[in-house]
Design a protein that fits this description.
Elements lengths: L10 H6 L8 H8 L7 H13 L2 H23 L4 E5 L9 H8 L4 E6 L2 H5 L1 H4 L7 E6 L5 H8 L10 E5 L8 H13 L6 E7 L4 H11 L11 H6 L5 E2 L5 E2 L22 E7 L2
Parallel strand pairs: 1-2, 1-4, 2-3, 4-5
Antiparallel strand pairs: 5-8, 6-8, 7-8
Helix pairs in contact: 2-3, 3-10, 4-5, 8-9
């Protein structure tokens, strides 16, 4: 178990920070993957966007399945025992620590998010095996040095870490800034560390229309990018096979969630896993 308790900020104070008048990406995504931690505004916008582009539901669900496969690969085949998950989102089934510690009970995981509703549910993310450890940081992607410094309370940054940034970088409007943030985080991790990214992509008219509708809803905008831009985040890293791929086609497991027939599904979301030499 972690010795960090999110109750350092009172539940009332946390709840006061939650804005239920506008949709929010974590709650919106939670609705699409079948969760219950969302509000009327999130469901209303979600339903509107599903009418525009029903495929976004597939993107949400298959991106979640990719998380599981990537973590199993890194913990199982590559021996990674430390995970830094930025842009955590709301707890659902098979969170990073659950998947990692199923494979490696001694795995350590640090979650990072600055959404008050995620913070309010952080206790669900702080469960751990006796051998491992989890922590939650209420921190901002735009402060990579602060994130790395705080993560040192749980992770040994002299040993390899898997940096996971899933469905988060689209919130950074400027592509070069997004690349700089990723580079800054990877610069603080040692050789043998991994970068794991997945994001929605501007690979269909439907996805572009869905993105425009979401951005006009009053939510914090989320910008979909081209596949070549997703690949650009991995500059200087050694890509793990099959390289940059649709989330359904990255090491599909025939007997796992989203495997089998689901692996053939074309979705507007790409991913990659890269190793720092």
């Amino acid at each position: 178990m972690s010795d960090r308790d999110p109750s350092y900020e009172s539940t009332a104070a946390i709840r006061a920070r939650i804005d239920t008048s506008k949709p929010h990406s974590a709650r919106f995504w939670n609705y699409f993957v079948g969760g219950k931690d969302n509000y009327d505004i999130d469901r209303e916008v979600g339903d509107q966007i599903k009418e525009i582009f029903p495929g976004l539901v597939d993107v949400a669900r298959t991106s979640r399945h990719f998380l599981g496969r990537a973590v199993r690969h890194l913990a199982g085949e590559q021996g990674i025992r430390q995970f830094l998950d930025i842009g955590t989102g709301l707890p659902t089934a098979d969170n990073t620590h659950e998947v990692a510690q199923r494979v490696a009970p001694d795995a350590r995981i640090v979650y990072v998010d600055n959404d008050p509703l995620v913070l309010a549910h952080a206790r669900a993310l702080l469960t751990s095996t006796p051998e491992g450890r989890t922590d939650y940081l209420d921190a901002n992607l735009y402060e990579p040095e602060s994130i790395l410094k705080a993560a040192e309370g749980t992770l040994d940054l002299s040993q390899p870490v898997a940096l996971m940034i899933l469905n988060t970088l689209g919130h950074v409007a400027d592509y070069e800034q997004a690349r700089s943030l990723v580079s800054g985080l990877m610069a603080g991790l040692p050789s043998g560390s991994y970068l794991v990214i997945s994001d929605s992509t501007s690979t269909s008219a439907g996805m572009i229309a869905a993105s425009e509708a979401y951005n006009s809803s009053g939510a914090i905008p989320y910008y979909v990018r081209g596949v070549e831009e997703i690949a650009g985040f991995f500059g200087g890293l050694e890509l793990v096979d099959p390289g940059i791929a649709q989330v359904t086609r990255w090491r599909p497991e025939a007997d796992g969630p989203g495997g089998g027939a689901g692996a053939a599904m074309a979705v507007d979301a790409y991913c990659g896993v890269g190793r720092k030499p």
